[in-house]
Amino acid sequence: MNVLMYIDGGSRGNPGPAAGGVVILDTDGVPLLEAGYWFGRKTNNQAEYGALLRGLDEALARDVTDIHIRSDSELLVRQLNGDYRVKSEVIVPLFNQARTTLEKFKRWKAEHVPRAMNARADELANLSMDASADVVESDWPKAAQPAPKSATATVAPKPAPAAQKAAKPAPAANILVKCNRAPAPGSCPAHCKKNAAYVFNSTLPAGLCLEPARSVLDAVVARSTKDVPCPKSGCGAVFSITPDEAED
Q: Does one domain contain both 117 and 235?
C-alpha cells in the first residue's frame, strides 16, 4: 500500500512538554490515521523524530510498503536524506532508529514542506500537548481490519448480503447531529458553524459536506452517541449524535 504521511513535533520550551502529530492518508486522500502523541519533556528535535518514529510504526502496522513523508522540519528531512550530518548525541540514536525502520519499506521519500501545508499535524501535536496525553482523532481503517488469522484458526463463513442487511438497525426518525467544532477556515465548501444542527431521518440533510456525512451516517444508523470527527484531512470538525430526538 502507498501512503502520504504528514508529521510535526514540538515542545513548549526547549526542552519542555512535547508531543508529535501524525496524519497518514491513502492515495485517495482518506485519512488512515490522525493522532497526536505525548512525549513528556523533550526538545523540539526529539519531538520531530518522535512523531516520525510513531508514524512509521503506524504505517507498518497497516502493511504500508511505499511511504511519502512530509515535514516542515528542514533539519529532519535533510538529515534523513543524507544532506546534513546528525551532530547531537541525543538525536543520533533516534536518527539511527528511523533509518533502520525506513529500510522495512519497499520505497520511501522524505520531503520538506511549508508549515501551512502541515497544519493538521501541527494541530494534533498541540492537542496532545494540551491534554498531556495521546489524542487519536481518527483511526478508521485500523479499527475495521479483521484480526490476524492463525494457522489453526477456523474461519467462520461470511453471512449472505441479505442477512447482513437485515441485521443492520434502521435509523430512527429525526436524529439530531450537531457540529461541536467548526471546520478549519477554507477546509470545505460547506463550512458549518459551531452548534449548527442537522436532522437525519429517511433523507440526508442539506448543507453537510460529503466527507463528514458519510461518517456521521454510520453513527446515525448504529444510534451511536460517540462524537464523530470529519475524516477530511485539515478540517477538524467534530459532530455529536443525539438518537431519537425529534426536531420541528
A: no
- Grid cell in block for residue 22: 501524525
Residue 166 shares a structural domain with residue 114? no
Contacts of 95 (CB under 8 A, 6+ apart): 49, 79, 80, 86
Q: Does residue 77 have a pLDDT over 50?
A: yes
Residue 47 belongs to domain with CATH number? 3.30.420.10
Residues of the domain holding 84:
2-144
- pTM of the predicted protein model: 0.59
Considering the domain architecture, whether residues 73 and 24 belong to the same structural domain is answered as: yes
Same domain assignment for residues 189 and 134: no
168-203 pLDDT per residue, tens: 444 445 677 777 777 776 666 556 777 777 676 655
Query: Quick one: pLDDT at residue 89?
Result: 96
Residue at a domain's end among 144, 176, 197? 144
